[in-house]
Structures are given as structure tokens and as C-alpha cells.
Design brief:
The structure is a homodimer of 248-residue chains. By secondary structure, chain A is an alpha+beta fold. Chain A has seven helices and eleven strands. Chain A binds a DNA duplex (30 and 30 nucleotides) through α6.
Chain lengths: 248, 248
DNA sequence: CGCAGAATTGATACATCTCAAGCTGGGTGG
DNA sequence: CCACCCAGCTTGAGATGTATCAATTCTGCG
């Protein structure tokens, strides 16, 4: 079933894990009933391309579980990630025919999909969805702008530290981590994906991670498992204002 | 009056130059009447800071005329522009207390302002505004993502060509330019502002502009007046797919 | 166990930054 | 009316951070 991406199960909205954060989070029960009727799930396997840039895109979706990336690819192969989709994030743009970027599953991923036409109809008739989508889009725009600072002005070391801080912070807010500045998480990205995120080569990513490890800013087991002994220290390495509460 | 930014005149919405493109573009007459009652104008002079990052921001606004920039500044002075506000663009974020970036007037500029509270009320009660703001925010997000590709993966020469193409295209769509691939416009930014836009130093900007001039891709009179003899050629220099219709 | 993808490490090349010196044009005051 | 001034810009020479090319070495998994 992985090839078609069609999933067998149909979870009720009321027991959906992203119920309180996704584009539907402000919906009343009657609105959820409508969504429940028209939604459908699709699963993708790691590495699988969900949408190709330029392809017609006849659906929009929420990420239920898993991770996906949005990226531009230039003709000569240079690639820049421009979005990272985590659970509850929204994929697709109402009022647009074709996808502007490649969307690729980084992990096993499940999407909650709506055909574009019906969703656009809902958007017009359901203020709670329109307002939530506006809020989510504004948040994404903020994230994109912080990302632009990283891409345009930070050194390779600061870029790596920034990415680790972003991932660590998100994990902390999800997993109710220890509040004592210690932080443990798994990287959801390969070195190459990190390079695409940060506008670096994978070699430079590797070197800078090694350097941060040498300097005691982080510890690593295996390739993915990261321990940050002192989050504040990591923040200092990002070049940002050192305000640094875990949930910022 | 430039110091307070308060403008003397009060233009009726129905005869406003950005009537058909701004956040209010989908409003009916009765909705415009409401806006007309609560809006107020503010003027700023070139170089004047409209909002400082971190300051409380008690208003939102549409740019009526002129140009402003949004930018992050790091503690050590590194600066990255993250937004360029042109006429009809929207400034401010409903539901946020403090400004995340500096907003600086690049030219003489006039804003059509609304106090934040009343505007948020309107947003809740007026779907036409909410929907238009969503659409505009999605457009900005797309622009931010294209910008991320420029920042992360393009060479200095490609960055300059991309910026010239962006400015040229916009001017072409406004001024109904000659359709024969020739293009003439004025740069709205200094070399330093271009550098902040592109994540370069101003020296590199200057060198690359000189190089493009040497290679016949552009001609320059004075410091700002640019002629592009062959727009397609410029597009080839951006590194993007060479689709290149003027209005893309 | 062994293999393939992922990651590390090294040597070198090169694009862009940095520091420094001069140029240019428009505005101002003597 | 001219000389000066200064912000904005250009150009040069050298330093430096990151990319590139090229081996190895890990790590997780069948």
C-alpha cells in the first residue's frame, strides 16, 4: 500500500493526535463532522517524494505523524530546503494549481488529506479554519524569516548550532524535557538534509558537528542521538541574543 | 510633521491608489466605510525607523506609497533584510505584541494605519479581510522561500542578477513596459541595502554589478538607473529555469 | 558477517570577506 | 559661483571560510 499511499485506517477527528494544533484546531464538533466525512489518509515511506515541483496538486493536507521537507532544486542540482513539515503542519496552498517545491517524506509519514476544491469551499464557509490557517501561515512566515537570517549572515558553526537549537527546542516543548538546561533528542535529518537546510555542503556540516562535539557543546552517540549538556551554551553558539529559555 | 509621522490629509478609501491590491481589496462599500472611519495616515522620511525590533507595536498598516524594509540585526551588527514592503503590502501581525524586526523607511513613505485592537476585531468579523490577508501572507511566504534559495545556494553574481530580475519584473508589471525584452528602472536600494538583502558585503555587490555591466548584461547611468537590454539574458544569469516571461 | 549508505577526515582550490585607498556627484556654505 | 564635503560607490590586495575532490571509516541492517 505504500506505493499508492492510501492508508487503511480512518481515525476519528475527535481522537486525532494533532487535533489541538492543526488547521482544524478551532473547529466545533459539527465542523469536525464535515471534515471527518471528506478527509482521507495517505502514508509515505522514507525518501518517497510526495509531490514534485511543477506537478498539479489536487489536495491539501495536515501532517499527522512523521516529517517531510519542502525544497527547491536548481537545474544543476543545487538544492535548498525551504520548509520542514512536522506533525500538525499544513501542506499545500489553497488557490494554487501546481506545487512550487518538491515535498519529500524524511521519515515514515501519514497525511490527513482533503481534495483542494472541497477544502477551498470549507475555507470560504468556515471562519474558524480560515483564521487558524492565517495564524499558522504567519507563524511559518516568521520561521522563514529567522531562517533567512541563518542562511544569509551566520557562519557554518552558528548555522549548525541554530539548527540544533531549533530541533532541541521543539523536542523540549513536545516531550516536557528536564528544565535544567540538559537536553536529549534525535536528529530527524541526515547530514545531507541538514546541509540542504542550512545552505552548506554535507562535509562542512560534518566538520562543524565534530567541532561542537570536540568543544563539549554537544555529545553524540551513533549518528543521530544528540545530548546537549547545557542548552544556554548552545544558544551562545548560535550568535542570537542569549535569552534562551527552553520554550521561547 | 515628519517627526510624529502624522499626515494631514485623509484620502477616501474609494479613491485610494492601493484600493485594489491591499488587504482591503475585497471589501464591500459598507466595510470600506468602517475602515475609513478608523484608519489614519502616517508619513516617514527616508532612513527613518518606523518600528524597532522588540518594541511594542500597537498598530498594523498598509503601505500606500514608498518603500520600507524589514530586517534582523545581530548583536555584533550583522544585518539581514527579511522583507521588502512595497505599496499595498501589509505591515504588522495581528495577535502579536512586539515587533520581531526593525522596519525602516527606504524612501519617503505613507502608511495607512489601524490600531491593532480594532483591526483584530475587524479580522474576526470580516471574512473578506481575513481571506485577503491569508492570501497576501501566503504570497509573502512564497517570496520568502524563493529568497531562501537565493541566500542559501546562489553565487554572488546570481544573487545580484536575481535581485535585478525581481525589481525589474515588478516595475514591468506596474509600468506596462515594452514587451521586447528591454527594461529600464531605478534601483530603490543602496548597495548596502542590496547587500543586506542578499547576504553579501557591499563591496561584493559593487564588484558583481560592475562585472554584469562589463559583460553587457546591464547598463548603468548614475548609481541607480539601470537598463537591461535583454531580460532573457538577465534571467539566464540568475541560475533559475529560463522560463522568463516578463510577467511571471 | 558483510554490505551499502552515511558520515568523517584530509588536502587543496576558490569565492567572498576584510581592510584600505580613492573616486564621483550632488549639495552647501563661503 | 566655485570649492569643499561627504555619503555612496568603486577598486585593489590579501586573508579566510567554505566548497571541492578524494579516501577511509563508521553504522545500522539484512
Amino acid at each position: 500500500m505504500a506505493d499508492t499511499g492510501l492508508a487503511e485506517v480512518h481515525v476519528k477527528c475527535s481522537s486525532c493526535p494533532i487535533r489541538h494544533r492543526a488547521v482544524c484546531s478551532r473547529c466545533e464538533q459539527d465542523e469536525l463532522d464535515v471534515l471527518d466525512r471528506i478527509k482521507y489518509y495517505r502514508d509515505f515511506t522514507p525518501g518517497q517524494t510526495i509531490v514534485w515541483a511543477g506537478d498539479e496538486m489536487d489536495f491539501v493536507a495536515s501532517v499527522v505523524t512523521g516529517i517531510a521537507t519542502l525544497s527547491h532544486t536548481m537545474e544543476d542540482g543545487r538544492r535548498q530546503m525551504v520548509g520542514l513539515l512536522l506533525p500538525s503542519d499544513f501542506l499545500g496552498r489553497p488557490g494554487r494549481e501546481t506545487a512550487p517545491y518538491d515535498v519529500v517524506a524524511t521519515s515514515k509519514i501519514t497525511l490527513c488529506c482533503f481534495r483542494k476544491g472541497p477544502f477551498e469551499e470549507l475555507l470560504r464557509s468556515t471562519p474558524s479554519i480560515n483564521q487558524r490557517l492565517l495564524e499558522m501561515t504567519l507563524d511559518e512566515l516568521d520561521a522563514a524569516r529567522e531562517w533567512m537570517l541563518i542562511l544569509g549572515r551566520k557562519t557554518a558553526r552558528e548555522k549548525i548550532a541554530s539548527l540544533l537549537a531549533i530541533i532541541g527546542r521543539r523536542d523540549a516543548s513536545l516531550n516536557m524535557s528536564t528544565a535544567d538546561g540538559r537536553l536529549v533528542f534525535d536528529l530527524p535529518l541526515t547530514r545531507e538534509a541538514m546541509a540542504d537546510y542550512l545552505g552548506l555542503t554535507l562535509e562542512t556540516v560534518s566538520r562543524q558537528i565534530s567541532a561542537l562535539k570536540r568543544d563539549g557543546v554537544i555529545q553524540i552517540e551513533g549518528n543521530r542521538h544528540v545530548t546537549v549538556p547545557d542548552f544556554q551554551r548552545l544558544i551562545e553558539e548560535t550568535g542570537d541574543d542569549t535569552d534562551g529559555g527552553l520554550i521561547a
